[in-house]
Amino acid sequence: MTILVTGAAGFVGSHLCEQLLKTSETNVIGIDLNIEGNQLKMRNVKSLLKHPNFKLYDIDLLTEDLSTFMKNVDVIYHLAGIPGVRSSFGNDFESYILNNGLVTQRLLETCRHHTIAKFIYISTSSVYGEKDGKVTEDLPTVPLSPYGVTKLTSEQLCHIYHLYFKVPTVVLRYFTVYGPRQRPDMAFHRFIKQMLENKPITVYGDGLQSRDFTYVADCVQATAAVKDADYVIGETINIGGKERATVLEVISTLEELLGQKAKIDFVTKATGEPMHTWADISKAQKLLNYRPSVRLREGLMNEIVDLAELYDRKE
Q1: Judgement on whether residues 205 and 303 belong to the same structural domain of the protein
Q2: Active site positions, annotated
Q3: What is the DSSP string of 165-230?
Q4: What average pLDDT is seen over the chain?
Q5: Which of 80, 184, 202, 270 ranks highest by number of CB atoms within 10 Å?
Q6: Are strands 243-246 and 210-215 parallel, antiparallel or unpaired?
Q7: Does residue 247 register a pLDDT over 80?
Q8: How far does Cα 309 stand from its chain's mean position?
Q9: Domain range enclosing 300
Q10: 122: part of which helix (H) or strand (E)?
Q11: How many domains does the chain have?
């Protein structure tokens, strides 16, 4: 089986490629942009580049002839895009439209003319907006940010191409993924780095907002399972974590793990972010046999170890 992964040098993408390559008969084609000279991306793919069944291409999905990479491809995992809620407001929105919406459309259009088993699009819980209680996949989608709008647009493109052209699409909605290699702009990475450097932690709002935190190993286990799963084409599936917590509860756990008191700098609540997220993962359990197993404390410790190495600090 040959699998194409876009965003292969990113946080989740690099972990996914490693998971896929655990099956010896699998070949993975990785695509990402601006890899050379990017310390974090090069670190993410360091072990992958040594694998004989992995090839990595540094290309721009907005301009490249994508059919070049489709020969003999069985499954596509589309993770590439511009992330981040806060930065999607303002002048950067054009980049979100192009790299989240147009890139997805170009990939789907290419898939119209090639036979593939599955096109798996990685979306986000941001498409739901503010909801109370557990969120099921059939609830109305009311995104609170331009980022969420572009991700929902891409989901709808998947549905349209499945409806009219039988492109075998599957949509996964991730809920706050964390763990080793997490991007520097994401909360846990920022918190841990700031504490390692004895700097104040920046918290948006009062810290009582809660999230369904999903450890990256659990996330990629579910994601990798989609390629072999039955009855998933045309479906939208939540991928949530083992446990939920508030931001302040996370900081308290970090204080215990690092053996130090955090200095917290509370700033204005961020625009575009819901107060709470909570995934109903019953569909993932049924269709993917998904059973998240990593507790928050264990996952945070793993991320601390990874970032201590990255920033050359003693954890």
Answers
A1: yes
A2: 147
A3: H---EEEEEE--EESTT--TTSHHHHHHHHHHTT-PEEEETTS--EEEEEEHHHHHHHHHHGGG-S
A4: 96
A5: 80
A6: antiparallel
A7: yes
A8: 22
A9: 178-211+242-276+294-310
A10: strand 118-124
A11: 2
**Dist CA 76 CA 90 (whole Å):** 32
User: What backbone phi and psi angles, to 5 degrees, belong to 125?
Assistant: -65, -15
Q: Which residues, at least 6 apart from 202, have a Cβ–Cβ distance to it below 8 Å? A: 190, 194, 265, 267
Q: Which tens digits make up the pLDDT trace of 157-201?
A: 999 999 999 999 999 999 999 999 999 999 999 999 999 999 999
**Residues 125 and 171: beta-carbon distance below 8 Å:** no
* DSSP secondary structure letters along 226-270: GGG-SS-TT-EEEE--SEEEEHHHHHHHHHHHHTSPPPEEEEPPP
Which residues, in sequence order, are bridge partners of residue 246?
210
Q: Which helix (H) or strand (E) holds 305?
A: helix 296-310
**Calpha distance 175→179 (Å, rounded):** 13
Answer whether residue 219 shows pLDDT above 50. Answer: yes
9-17: average pLDDT: 98
* Residue 315, pLDDT score: 45
Q: Are 87 and 221 contained in the same domain?
A: yes
Cα Rg of the chain (Å, integer) = 19
Tokens representing residue 123 in the block: 């979306």
Order of strands across the sheet that contains 243-246: 177-178, 210-215, 243-246
The pLDDT confidence band at residue 313, using thresholds 50, 70 and 90, is low
Query: Is 287 part of any domain?
Result: no
